[in-house]
Amino acid sequence: MMERAEDYQGFLKILEMYLVSLGINQARQVLLIADGAEWIWKHIPPLLEKLNCPLETFQLLDFYHATEHLQVFADNAFSKEIERKKWFKQARSALKRGKINSIIQEMNKLSLEFTGERRKNVNREINYFLKGNKEGRFNYHKISFLKLPIGSGAVESLIRQAVNLRMKGNSKFWLKNNAEVILHARCQWIAGCSNKFCDSILTALVKPIQIA
Fold it and tell me: Which of 45, 64, 78, 175 is 20–30 Å from 198 (CA)?
């Protein structure tokens, strides 16, 4: 998790360069999917605006992260397992169909029955959905209609392929600089750009850039 300014400022610079190279201002539509990390929603939408993204730019909370919050609410709201499972299944389906307002109303109604720590726990989950709904980040029905993904699973899978399988494991230890070099090379290979990447390195060695 990148919570401090020094953790994500470098990432934002790299992201900006990458988006410019992709020609994001020429895109027909852009979809930003993320979890509830505040730094993402604070910094990336302004970056997209700065890069003149199209009007059809959507923000979406990852559907599967959102359903985890539904599960936490159900765990606190119902003592019987059969009731928890039934409510969660119905709420999950309703969320996917765009019934977020109905879900929040039902959650508020159920919360009136609780006090103390239990009330605190359910209210925390209600506030999660209230905040996301205010920003329009639960439009799963609309995004699905546009044939766009509602979850970040593809990116998370890529992280596993590009990072975890190569760099994590028993008896593997890395110095920071070495890890960054290996990670960069690994990403080039995963993206199918390894030959071009190697050629650029060899060219740089043969004809180094002259700095005045």
Answer: 175
